User: Fold this.
Amino acid sequence: MNILIAILGLGLLVLVHEAGHFFASLAVGMRPRRFYVGFPPALAKTTRRGIEYGIGAIPLGGYVKLPGMHRPLPRDVDHSFARAIAEDTRMQPPLERVKQKLEEEDFAAAREELAAVREALEASRLSDGARSSAENALVDLDDSLGPGAYWRQPMWKRIVAIFAGPGTNIVFAVAIFAVLFMITGGQPTRTVDDVQPESPAAAIGLRSGDEILEIDMVPVGPSDIPSRIQGSRGRPITVTVEREGQTTMLGPVQPRRDGDTYRLGFTLRGEGLGPGAAVRESVELTGEVTREIGRSLFELAGGEGREDIASPVGIVQGSSNALSRGVETYLWVLGLISLSLALLNLLPLLPLDGGHIVFSIIEGVRGRAVGREVYERVSAVGIAIVLLLFFVGLSNDVDRLS
Assistant:
């Protein structure tokens, strides 16, 4: 059950990401053609104001289709309509005129020629498969040549539409952290929240709900508790608690060493913060985590930190383990995954969002579109890097699960 919830949680983050693209595109006047909850093929769908809304058969994440991501090329026409032309050559003359106008970069005239392509398609004798393929290709070509095509938009509109995906993941993480800070993640109290199994704290009978009054018979406040345990340097200590109105001394017991830190193996219950303080703490935490992830990526580029990479398999496994320790722990991890997903997508690699943002800036500075061939070459490099990271992460996950 935990695995299923973890998978659905990861799917939710992808859906949040795609919803960011969708609503930002609408806000700047670019109307997406499709918005699915889950991935196609569709189990159910409806069209409203030119947008197809659907529920996908693959119930993970979401899917958004923006019109005309790339400038159409003559060879796109050959590829898209090859099956239709092979079955009925009446399609070829109007398509040749479209190709000619694309060669001349007269996109308005090319779009006008699509009317003749539609007439030829209606009059042609095609198999069901060829007709369906040609109809879809005609819609895509019309979108690519229309004024609402992504590649024809001003730089700022494209950047807003693309950045909104990872941006929404960042906002989602900040919101989760803020809620957790308001509930339990604020200032610590003296009350024990959780005791780790087989820890020194468990060995002396410390329980959730105990209020720690003294360590080694010295009164302590919430901030004193970890420093007193650390100050023992591993020598046996006693813990005095109040439990159900009774004062009890537990121990002595030796704190367990964890690197340079000494621990008894328990956590203190947090006292929730007010909304303003919770948001401030959430933003600060997001900044700290972002710096750490950035540092890790920089080290990875230098050949270090390979063992820290995880694939979706490892992410789901880690989320499941967090869920077994409680809903709050799982929500902290879900927020961290959302933030990581955003930062990964902002890497300046095609086909990631960061790569599209970089190319939008380049095209804005140049005043004209970058050649499709450049997009394809850079995308091939980006896909290779992403696949390499995926397989390294999968290898690490297999080792960890083994």
